Amino acid sequence: MKQFLTILFVCGAAFAQTKSTTAAKKSPAPTRNLLDPSTLKAIAPATFKARFTTTQGDVVVEVTRAWAPLGADRFYNLVRGGFFTGAPFFRVIAGFMAQFGVSPDPKITAAWNSQVLKDDPVKQSNKRGFITFATAGPNTRTTQLFINYGDNSRLDSQGFAPFGEVIEGMDVVDKFYSGYGEVDSGSVQSLGKAYVDKSLPKLDSIKSAVIVPMPRPVPAATKSTTTKSTKQ
User: Which pLDDT band holds residue 44 (cuts at 50, 70, 90)?
Assistant: First the structure.
């Protein structure tokens, strides 16, 4: 009887250990929460694409992380977290750029305003279609970005580091409403959608933004398949 009880105890201990190990392996990743920027810290792939569905049509941006790694990572996480949904293109200057990256929810904007990034070295030029983070001086990037309408290479020496470029839909970007010119960006940030809807109703905005799934690689033909094919 004593031996039987010992066996039961050992088996029970082994089961308990297996269960706890399994639970440890299955611990879920932190839920992405726009009000908690610490949950959006993933490293971006070496290259990836993001599709913006806007009020004028679709725009696809291709990002190369090596161009500006910190900027690429921040953009990747903002897209994955849904930050850009409903965000307006609030500063559109014809011939210069289209700026966006303020959440329609002032609480989310406030949560990210303190999440400043160190500057990336400038490796690409601010040419037409290239996308870059806006700054308020050295090491102040947060969530605001702009798409260059023309050759703005003069910005390169000021530390504006492009991290990607529009590869589809630049004609869509050209259609964004620019009639307001310079706007009260402080009110856009502090009051959000309520201010935009009331004071800047013609602004274009982002309906959704998603990371475009990468195509799966086509498997190489096996040796036997190749041999058969040759014999035929």
Answer: very high
Distances (CA, A) of 130 to 99, 138, 152: 12, 20, 10
What topology does CATH give the domain 44-212? Cyclophilin (2.40.100)
Q: Which residues pair with 145 in a beta bridge?
A: 100, 133
Query: pTM for this one?
Result: 0.81
**Tokens, residue 180:** 């307001």
Cβ-based neighbour number of residue 226 at 10 Å: 11
pLDDT tens digits, residue range 67-77?
Answer: 999 999 999 99
The three-point CA angle 75-127-174 to 5° equals 80
